[in-house]
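Purpose: get a first structural picture of the assembly so the mutagenesis plan has something to point at.
Setup: two entries, given in the order below. No constraints added.
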Amino acid sequence: MATPNTLLWEVFIRSRNGLAHKHVGSLHASDATMALQAARDIYTRRGEGLSIWVVPSTAITASDPAEKGMMFEPAESKIYRHPTFYEVPEEVGHM
Amino acid sequence: MYTQALNTVETADRGLEDAGKAAQFQARIDAEERIEPNDWMPAAYRKTLTRQISQHAHSEIVGMLPEGNWITRAPTLRRKAALLAKVQDECGHGLYLYAAAETLGSSREELVDAMLAGKAKYSSIFNYPTLTWADIGTIGWLVDGAAIMNQIPLCRCSYGPYARAMIRVCKEESFHQRQGYEIMVTLCRGSDEQKAMAQDALNRWWWPVLMMFGPPDATSQHSDTSTKWKIKRFSNDELRQKFVDATVPQAQYLGLTIPDPGMTQDADGHWRYSEIDWTEFKQVLAGNGPCNRDRMAARRKAHDEGAWVREAAASYAAKRAQRQTAQAAE
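Result (structure tokens, whole complex):
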């Protein structure tokens, strides 16, 4: 008999106080409590974190990489959003 | 070890695929870009990687068996704790790799079922038995040493999820090799019997470990596509030679003799080993190694005996979900 599929979860870990939670991988578990315990065992065997988030993979909405051109073009053409676009006289020094 | 799957050739279905997309794909590979799960990829690339990564995952899982055999008999509490941690790592490695393989579109359950049905392979090295405590030292030193040689280039593999999983694995693998070598150093500094035990383990493992790198370049047909796709970055013989060159001085330090009377050192420093007995390799690969049947039986037993746990977890989750929906409706 084929084994029934178990839910997929994405795991995020905060490695140090003050840092953001970062995606580290995924795992299978049938509920959130078990996902959290499995994340502890799989991704933090060497003190990699202070806090773990587990999120059902189905809850993530992702942009389509095939449309990345259209998606991110507006940011690319607006060079005036960067500080280096503006000229400050040398005499003024570092700003 | 774990690139055994790349020694099989994938028949390409190029005719059916968009030539333009295939060219674009190859251009990305040539530019050292990483391929991600949702990117377009040739069907043969997907198939090769699914087979390679899942076999690698199965190898990690089956690899727990020969070492797990010694956890309860480790000579000290320190050795026992280290071995237990190492075996837990192997399990973790298997899980990172299954997750990477799944991004290619097969479910974890399908991959595991294929292994249990005998349709997917695992590394042949685990079909050898661990007869004495020295085997645990030798596995860490040589089997994990060979695995590191093989896996470091995989950290730069063109498929992003596989490369990232390998980075995590390699970080942890170094502990494995060092703990193995420490066991060997202790045995070699011990009584005559202990040293003899270390030599015996080396004698039994040396040739199977050299076979882990796969058939010689002259006879292996895989390389073309896997190399072109930057899944495999070094040939079997190149990696094997690197391993031998790194290992000979380590054996000399231990005062152990590599069981190859024909081994010589070149003027350029490379250690040249004798001809490898590939008929043995083919026999083990075909299922006739010393432990093939044991390993499969142990995996199937563990899977069957865990069935009630999976069922209980699933029905508990279903019950809770149902209760939540009922409460929300009130």
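The mean pLDDT of chain A is 89.
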